[in-house]
Amino acid sequence: MSGFNFKQYITRVVKYMIYLAVVFFLIIGIFAITSQSGFKFENLFRPGTGGQMIVFFLAISLVYPFFGFVKKKIYLNRGFAEDREKIVDIFLNTRYILISETATTITFRHTSAIVRLMRMYEDDITIDFTDNPIVMEGQRKDVYRIGRAIEYHTRDDRKDD
Fold this sequence. Notes:
Blueprint: H1 6-34, H2 49-68, E1 69-74, H3 80-93, E2 96-101, E3 105-110, H4 113-118, E4 125-128, E5 134-139, H5 140-153
Antiparallel strand pairs: 1-5, 2-3, 3-4, 4-5
Helix pairs in contact: 1-2, 3-5
């Protein structure tokens, strides 16, 4: 989990380029189908903007993997072994399943095929528990959401009598 994985980055860039192209052509297709008058692609864009759109899609595809995927440190009050069951339950409650486990990492994957497709099969969340804090890696939204749940459920509850 340490270092920059260039192969994974390039894979994500290609997936996002394809994803953006598909969405773009779907929108153009919807315009063509719902158009009352004769549809012409040239009427939607100024002449010469094709190259600008390609550069825009390429730039978004190159930048998004840096912001869409994160590593988050989560401090546990106890060791991972004591909180492991709570952490696995949190993932199960958020529709993730355990797909692999090594001596220092656990990887979870979303259970919904539609969610996985919409996320271009980049929905794995990996937890590295070699040290405290544990490190979660995956898509930003889910890592932060599940990370907050783990922090909440593994805190030491004070008994105020």
